[in-house]
Amino acid sequence: MKFLRYLHRHFTEFSIAGLCFGYFAAYVPYSMMTKMLTKGLFSGMNGVGFSGFEIQPVAVFGSFAAMFAFVTIAGWWKFATHSKIFGISIPRPQWFTLISGICTAAQIVTTTLAYTFDGVSIVFAMLLMRGGVLALAPIVDVVARRRKRKIYWPSWVAAFLSFAALAEALFGHVGTNMTVVAIVDISIYLFVYFFRLFFMSNRAKSDDVEERKRYFAEEQLVANPLLMLVLLAVGIVGSHMSPESIPAKIWDGFVTFPFQGYCLQAFLIGIFSGGTGLFGGLIFLDKRENTFTVPANRSASIVAGVVASYLLAIFYRQSFPPTHELLGVVLILGAIIFLAYRSAMDKKSTKKKKKGAI
Predict the structure, then answer these.
(1) Adjacent-strand bridge partners of 348
(2) What residues have CB less than 8 Å from 148, skipping those under 6 apart?
(3) Cross-strand pairs, 90
(4) Are 74 and 4 in contact (CB under 8 A)?
(5) CA-CA distance, 283 to 272, in Å (whole number)?
(6) What percentage of the chain carries pLDDT values higher than 70?
(7) What's the rounded Cα separation, in Å, for the pair 11 and 120?
(8) What contacts 73, CB < 8 A, 6 or more positions away?
(9) Which of 12, 129, 182, 205 gives the lowest tally of CB atoms within 10 Å of its CB?
(10) Which pLDDT does position 326 carry in this prediction?
(11) How many angstroms separate the Cα of 140 from the Cα of each of 23, 132, 226?
(12) What is the arithmetic mean of pLDDT over 10-28?
């Protein structure tokens, strides 16, 4: 409770480094617990896990609870657009935050699913998703003409190093057998991310703190509630289908999974997912160019994925990340250095402007 109020009061002072650390701290348990629940690594599971589709209803509810609690306690609903219904002022999204919220909903479910596929490690799944978004960042900066941003050279270098790290690790997986479902999942993830970044760039990345709060609150007003309704609708259809079908597994997530002893773990996965959504969203809403904010976000998640993989290897006898993935982490650390330099450039520029104004 106190932390949420602190974040609300000091929103404008919360550095990109602080947001990246929060993203990292939420992503480690989120990715680790998702893999543990689907591979049967928790105590008493004996290696028999649940499918990624079965855990979705409870996990999404956890994410919804976390986001609703934050926006409510922080008092950000007041910044959202309101309409009066029978004399009562009700927060509502604008057309672009509605689309962005739909994209966020798709992003939430596809991210969790990406860590549940057999033969796809945490790091490899992250490499595919992060590499794609890194490639999208400069494209969005170019096409988002409503609020044009200059891309500074440290951002280009950081983006290049991040993408090189992901490409190097990806080439190390050439020949990996990926299912059609996994390919479709990651493709949807990248498709919706482009539009989310585009609308953020055109509508919310600015010096106006209230505008950023408004965008975030309206986006969350759509994302998790919509996702819960879609999952419920698909689950109801699945209740009349083969038990092996995806809709049927989602239905099991509503009516069977909550009573099998691992509901709390799935709920916590949702809580940590909400944490990644919170810090990740605030990083993307930073006024600087996407070629800066996306590598900052992606770098934090890649390092988190490696840490989670090592924890699984040490404590649960899972495979250690291969050498080529660790080489990628070294490149990521190099990207972080250039991102830090970019931040230092901004601070130096701000100080000069303040001195000039005196």
Answers:
(1) none
(2) none
(3) 83
(4) yes
(5) 16
(6) 81
(7) 37
(8) 1, 4, 5, 8
(9) 12
(10) 72
(11) 22, 12, 26
(12) 77
pLDDT of residue 25: 94
- Token code pair at residue 51: 């499918």
Residue pair 23/281 in contact (Cβ under 8 Å)? The answer is no
Burial category of 98 from C-beta neighbours within 10 Å (exposed 0-12, middle 13-18, buried 19 and up) = middle
Structure tokens at 230: 């879609």
As a three-state string, the secondary structure of the chain is CHHHHHHHHCHHHCCHHHHHHHHHHHHHHHHHHHHHHHHCCCCCCCCCCCCCCCCHHHHHHHHHHHHHHHHHHHCHHHHCEEEEECCEEEEECCHHHHHHHHHHHHHHHHHHHHCCCCCCCHHHHHHHHHHHHHHHHHHHHHHCCCCCCCCCHHHHHHHHHHHHHHHHHHHCCCCCCCCHHHHHHHHHHHHHHHHHHHHHHHHCCCCCHHHHHHHHHHHHHHHHHHHHHHHHHHHHHHCCCCCCCHHHHHHHHHHCHHHCCCHHHHHHHHHHHHHHHHHHHHHHCCCCCHHHHHHHHHHHHHHHHHHHHHHHHHHHCCCCCCHHHHHHHHHHHHHHHHHHHHHHHHHHHHHHHHHHHC
Q: Residue 191: phi, psi to the nearest 5?
A: -60, -50
Distance CA 93, CA 99 (A): 9
Mean of all residue pLDDT scores within the chain: 83
Tokens of 284: 């993307």
What's the angle, vertex CA 126, arms to CA 97 and CA 62, rounded to 5? 55
Contacts of 45 (CB under 8 A, 6+ apart): 262
The single-letter code of the amino acid at 143 is: V
